[in-house]
User: What shape does this take?
Amino acid sequence: MQALLELDQVSKHFPLRGRGLFGGRLGTVQAVSEASLAIARGETLALVGESGCGKTTLGRVAALLHRPTAGRLSLDGSDVAGLGRDALRRLRRKVQTVFQDPFGSLNPRLTAGFSLREPLDIHRVGTPSDRNARIAELIVAVGLRRDDLERYPHQFSGGQRQRIAIARALALDPALVVLDEPLSSLDVSVQSQVLNLLAEIKRRRGLAYLFISHDLAAVEHLADRIAVMYLGRVVELAPRDLLLRQPAHPYTRALIDAVPRIEDGRRRRAVLKGDVPSPIDPPKGCAFHPRCPRAEARCRVQRPVLAIPPGRAAAHLAACHFPLDPA
Assistant: This one.
């Protein structure tokens, strides 16, 4: 079956320049390096990792908001690299994004109705009456009222603003929605409501999601497969249950252990030691080796590639010279 979205050895690097008019190039930020992923229609692929690991940049590449520095990206069978501006603009209708900050992503001067109608106007979808009917349908589909179309962003709660952002992402009937930390700015009491809404929308519309999150509890609820990123690279990829219950990469194990849990009536969690290295000057060999308790000399000089670890299913991949044994 052909993937809806396919990224093959995709990299995205940004030049780092000095200040001032004549500031020269100081280096390169290697935000994403040689990442390969595929998302099928109707599938939710979660992308997890610490802050600064490249999740958002990879999400923006997947949403066609950044062109990759290297590698191949195809959406619905179209190779993005070979497309001109008009063709790329038409293809962007198939992938939409819900950003982390629902207030920052909505224009405070526009009503909810105008924000929902804007993508329909830009792409000239239907007649004006068709567009009005469409936005009325969308606002109800995300659990708000038609009267809310006349209200401004500051008149909504954070959870309601995120519902509007989700409705706007659905306006053009995309096949894929990139969800960039859609829960992190919401109160805990609201997060489950939005998570359930996303699951229901996916079920009704057959959408595919690229769900970027650091919340493994949310990931477990929504994801079909999980990709783990570290310093711009995908270090593990597996079906949800396999990865969460039998991780192969030491970094994945550390992320799972860092989730707070109750022991002896006290809240405890393991803390991953050290900081994520700079993407300007990543370590040689395996980027995780300075923090890895299993690192050996080979890890410091040879970069591991994604492969099936010994004793694992074919759908389970990890980039590690010394993967964990299956439980």
Observations:
- The CA atoms of residues 57 and 154 lie 28 Å apart.
- The first strand starts at residue 5 and ends at 17.
- The chain is about 30% helix and 25% strand.
- Residues 226-327 form one domain.
